[in-house]
Write a structure and sequence with these properties.
single chain; about 475 residues; alpha+beta; 2-methylcitrate dehydratase PrpD; 2 domains; four-stranded mixed sheet; two-stranded antiparallel ribbon; 6 strands; about 5% strand; globular
Length: about 475
């Protein structure tokens, strides 16, 4: 159990002074980005329904909910915030692990920091950077001869349980024995599958919330003395053997642990929707920027894809004729048609109203998917190719790599600030401009903050 011991020691003992500058910068960008995309999703389907349940349940007022004048027990508040931050699928992504790290680590840290009280910005950033690093490493350590997107698991949810427990455990200052139990109790709850994407179900955006609620609960149970299976990671019924029928890749999991933090390789999204659709948007915009044609001239749109992108193509009818906003977020045909029809792809194109946009739907109906095994990739996000067959036998084609790979799309703090304000503008919530600026200022110098809990309260109505 040497791998488990090293991992647990890291989770329990990480400190701010261990973080290299890129990890600190990445953590701040991640924090601001999650708050921004959360503001844009206060009214997203699935959020209000979950909020109504929590309002009825009530409970001890431990941690604040983003965009609502309510505080809930810490696990429930984290669940709400993770769901809100993930609902628009505009939150960050780590391509090699196929996870959304920010919603797990940020929502867990925010809720636990309020529960503990008086958590410094440095401690908060240390826990945040560690949680992000951990979920990425856990996802990358899966051994498979297939692309992660084809394995059927929702990796953010599955590995979000132990990552959330680690963040909460670090802020609760659990020792190594209790940290091990926290991760093990979290694993006992770990779940999440990709069927929700195929069926266009709202559970896609709920999965990370389940993970952080379970993760924080696991840390609190461990603090209280509850034990978990010590073989949660390496045992014969541990997470890798049971879920993936193979031991974890120890080298990937432990390489430069505590020295290299994967947060620096987390990409900040420029477009809403699944990160794997982004190269198709880029390819379409490239064709539009370099050629003259009218959408009426388009006879057929061919999208070439690999195995790891198949879930964004099939079922073909649902992807070309989306049934709901979840279908929109996971549809290559939809984003290509949107780019062609609107010349851009923004938050407004992933709503119930957008489904009725005839300019887009008429184009998405002309999309024909073509599988090409050369596009399949075991690690990282696949490239995308778009071909336009126009009247007069004109033929245009463009292929783009996915810029989310290896953190290639991570924004600067200035660019993330612009995205934060844009998301706030899209939000139904009216937050005072001074409060928004205060949030940006706090996050920019978060290592100097004395009490991290003041941040989220700035983003509640009337604050």
């Amino acid at each position: 159990m040497q791998t488990t011991t090293k991992l647990v020691e890291y989770c329990a003992e990480v400190e701010f002074d261990m973080l290299p500058t890129p990890a600190v910068e990445a953590a701040k960008i991640e924090l601001l980005d999650c708050l921004g995309v959360g503001l844009a999703a206060i009214d997203a389907p699935g959020v209000a329904e979950l909020m109504r349940l929590n309002s009825v349940w009530g409970g001890k007022q431990e941690s604040a909910v983003l965009g609502y004048n309510i505080s809930l027990p810490a696990p429930n508040a984290a669940q709400m915030n993770a769901t809100i931050m993930h609902a628009r699928d505009f939150d960050d992504i780590h391509a090699r692990s196929l996870t959304h790290p920010g919603i797990i680590s940020v929502s867990s840290a925010l809720a636990t920091a309020e529960l503990v009280g008086g958590v410094s910005g440095k401690d908060f950033l240390a826990a945040l950077a560690m949680g992000t690093d951990l979920i990425c490493r856990l996802g990358m350590a899966v051994r498979s001869d297939q692309p992660r997107g084809a394995l059927g698991w929702h990796f953010t949810a599955v590995f979000g349980f132990p990552a959330s427990a680690a963040v909460a455990g670090r802020l609760l200052r659990l020792n190594q024995e209790k940290m091990l139990n926290a991760l093990a109790i979290a694993y006992h709850q770990s779940s999440g599958n990709g069927q929700c994407v195929l069926d266009g179900a709202l559970t896609k955006r709920l999965g990370p919330g389940f993970a952080v609620r379970g993760g924080i609960t696991a840390a609190l149970l461990a603090e209280a003395g509850v034990t978990g299976a010590s073989g949660w990671l390496e045992g014969e019924a541990g997470i890798y053997q049971l879920y993936f029928r193979s031991p974890c890749n120890d080298r990937t999991l432990l390489s430069e642990l505590g020295v290299r933090f994967e947060g620096a390789n987390v990409a900040t999204k420029r477009y809403p929707g699944c990160g794997a659709v982004h190269p198709y948007i880029d390819a379409t915009l490239h064709l539009m920027g370099n050629n003259k044609f009218a959408t009426g001239d388009i006879e057929e749109i061919v999208v070439v894809h690999g195995e790891g992108t198949r879930f964004l193509i099939e079922p073909v009818k649902a992807k070309c004729e989306p049934r709901n906003p979840v279908d929109l977020q996971f549809s290559v045909p939809w984003v290509v048609a949107t780019a062609l029809a609107e010349g851009k792809v923004t938050l407004e194109h992933f709503t119930e109203e957008a489904i009725r946009n005839e300019k887009i739907t008429s184009l998405s109906a002309r999309v024909v998917p073509v599988f090409d095994s050369k596009f399949s990739r075991i690690d990282g996000a696949e490239a995308g190719k778009v071909e336009l067959k126009l009247k007069g036998k004109r033929h245009l084609a463009a292929m783009c790599e996915n810029t989310v790979n290896e953190g290639g799309q991570r924004m600067t703090f200035a660019d993330c600030t612009n995205k934060f304000y844009a998301c706030a503008d899209f939000s139904i919530l009216e937050i005072d401009a001074k409060a928004l600026r205060k949030v940006v200022e706090l996050v920019k110098d978060f290592e100097d903050v004395r009490d991290a809990s003041e941040l989220i309260r700035l983003l509640q109505p009337g604050k």
